[in-house]
Amino acid sequence: MRSKAVVVMAALSATLVTGGWLVGRGLQGQGAGATANGARLFDEVLQHVTRYYVDSVGVDSLYRGALSGMVRELGDPHSAVLSADRLRR
Questions:
Q1: Which of 7, 14, 46, 82 could form a disulfide with 87 if both were Cys (CB 3.0 to 4.6 A apart)?
Q2: Cα gap 39→54, rounded to integer Å
């Protein structure tokens, strides 16, 4: 059961990262409205996944996966997303 959850999270993270990369490439050079359009598209994908995905996935875990994927795409080994607990430590 745990391995299924890991596979689902990996697939969702890859989808969100790939989608974000494609959106970013499509929005380059489009001015101030590009940020609003990117945020709107992200919200639409998030709603679609939470409503129609086969398994139920929490919105919090989708956001964490998206954040982790975004930082991973930077390619900087010194950048990371820290949980509140880890940040306190």
A1: 82
A2: 24
CA 3 from centroid of its chain's CA atoms = 20
Q: What is the pLDDT of residue 72?
A: 92
Residue 23 Cα distances to 3, 18, 36, 52, angstroms: 30, 9, 12, 21
Contact in structure between 81 and 71 (CB atoms under 8 Å):
yes
Crossing angle of helices 33-52 and 59-73, in 10° steps, is: 130
Token pair belonging to 87 = 């940040």
CA pair distance 43, 45, nearest whole angstrom = 5
pTM here is 0.55
Q: CA-to-CA distance for 7 and 54, rounded, in angstroms?
A: 13
Q: Label residue 25 by pLDDT band (50, 70, 90).
A: low
User: Residue 21 belongs to what H/E stretch?
Assistant: helix 2-27
